[in-house]
Design a protein that fits this description.
Elements lengths: L1 H36 L2 E10 L2 E8 L2 H10 L4 E8 L3 E5 L9 E4 L4 E5 L3 E5 L4 E10 L4 H8 L4 E7 L1
Antiparallel strand pairs: 1-2, 1-9, 2-8, 3-4, 3-9, 4-7, 5-8, 6-7, 6-8
C-alpha cells in the first residue's frame, strides 16, 4: 500500500513538473511574440491636432523607417476624414512599404492603409493593416473629444 501511494505521489509530481514546464515555455513564447510586436523605432512621431501636441511611439518596420525618412524633410499636414465612426483617414500623397498583419485596433493606434493612407483609430476594428505606432498619454475618451466627429487636420513631424 505504501509503495502504491509513493508511486502515485511520484507520478503526480512528474505530471506537475511537466505542466509547470509547459506553462513556463508558453509564457516565454508569449513574451517573445509580445516583444516582437512592441519593438519600437528610435524616433517618436509628433502629431499636432487642433493646437494640441501629442507624441506616438513608432513600431520598427520598413513602413515607419520610410515615413521617418519622408518626415525628415519637414512636417507634413494631412486632412483626416471620419470613416465609420471608428477612424480618421487621410491621404499621405506618397506610397510607403506595407507590412500588413491581422490587427485589432484600439483607440490611439496609427495605421498605414493600402500603403498611402494615414489612419488614426479611435475605436476598435479588425483587418489586415500596417501598424505604425500608438499615441502616448491619451485615453479613448480624450482622443474622441479632441478629434470630434468631423474632418480634422493633423501635422506629422519627427525630431
Amino acid at each position: 500500500m505504501y509503495k502504491k501511494a509513493l508511486w502515485i505521489g511520484v507520478a503526480l509530481l512528474v505530471i506537475g513538473i511537466f505542466v509547470v514546464s509547459a506553462e513556463i515555455r508558453s509564457q516565454q513564447i508569449t513574451d517573445s511574440i509580445t516583444t516582437q510586436k512592441v519593438r519600437t523605432h528610435k524616433r517618436m512621431l509628433n502629431l499636432e491636432i487642433k493646437q494640441k501636441k501629442l507624441t506616438a511611439t513608432m513600431v520598427d518596420n520598413s513602413s515607419t523607417r520610410a515615413l521617418s525618412k519622408w518626415l525628415a524633410n519637414g512636417p507634413k499636414t494631412i486632412k483626416l476624414n471620419d470613416f465609420e465612426r471608428m477612424e480618421k483617414v487621410g491621404d499621405l500623397g506618397e506610397n510607403f512599404p506595407s507590412n500588413d498583419t491581422s490587427i485589432t485596433t484600439k483607440a490611439g493606434d496609427l495605421i498605414l492603409y493600402q500603403g498611402n493612407k494615414f489612419v488614426l483609430y479611435y475605436a476598435p476594428n479588425s483587418w489586415n493593416f500596417t501598424r505604425l505606432g500608438k499615441i502616448n498619454d491619451i485615453n479613448a475618451k480624450q482622443l474622441k473629444e479632441l478629434i470630434g466627429t468631423e474632418s480634422v487636420t493633423v501635422t506629422l513631424s519627427i525630431d
